Amino acid sequence: MTNSHVIKPLTPETFPAWLALAQKHNGVWGGCYCSYFHDDTEHTVKDEYDRPTFKQRLVAEGVAHAALVFDGDDAIAWCEFGSPVELPNIYHRKQYDAGETKSAPWRITCFFVDRDHRRSGVAREALDGALELIAQAGGGEVVSFPNELAPGKRTSSSFLHNGTRAMFEKAGFTFERHIGKSKTVMRKTIPPARG
User: Fold this and answer.
1) Angle CA(16)–CA(157)–CA(106) in degrees, nearest 5?
2) Main-chain dihedrals φ then ψ at residue 25, nearest 5 degrees
């Protein structure tokens, strides 16, 4: 892990760097622009805008959160997080909801790493950055849905947009249960930042 990377929140000021990273990769996952987990807001209807404009509007409304990993002026990765209201569209939602006894105030839904920086620990930097931003916002329980990789089977990092169980375990998350074929539910409580 390098010390030259800086974590910044996704804001109207950092949005252009975020957008440049997404555009470098054709909008990410077929033009998603990290909008899949979002839904309409009071002011913005998803289907009335192209995906980059939709995401920009959510950032301006303060209802799209991410930790961006910067290398100089360039964003090279992100970890999307937010409340269940901000990010309702999770995979296996019915199965997740059916087994949910205590809804967490935060969820982590998505990672993206620049193809030139994959398999170098940058996703973990983004995860740690998201947890720090959650601490600064008052902390609380965080739930996420990382993939559990089949032993010995190599998986393209481009498919691991939820991260891996192993990465979350190293970050102190506790495994709770499986949902779907390869997704897990994992939790960690983040204390509020001091000062």
Assistant:
1) 60
2) -110, 35
Q: Is 125 exposed, middle or buried (0-12, 13-18, 19+ CB in 10 A)?
A: buried
Q: pLDDT (tens digit, 9 = 90+) per residue, 66-88?
A: 999 999 999 999 999 999 999 99
Q: Which one-letter amino acid corresponds to residue 38? A: H
Give the integer Cα–Cα distance in Å for 97 and 68: 29
Q: In this predicted model, what pLDDT tens digit does every residue of 94-113 receive, in sequence order?
A: 888 888 888 899 999 999 99
Instruction: Give the pair of three-digit tokens for residue 7.
Output: 């974590």
**From CA 165, how far away is CA 183, in angstroms rounded?**
9
Decide: 77 and 69 in contact? Cβ < 8 Å: yes
DSSP 131: H
* Segment among 28-42, 78-92, 124-138, 174-188 with least mean pLDDT: 28-42
CA-angle at 147, arms to 155 and 18, nearest 5°: 85
| Strand-pair partners of 77 | 69, 113
Strand residue runs (E) in 11-124: 65-71, 74-82, 106-113
Sign of CA dihedral 51, 53, 56, 58: negative
Q: Report which DSSP code applies to 172.
A: T
Q: How far does CA 96 lie from the centroid of its chain? A: 18
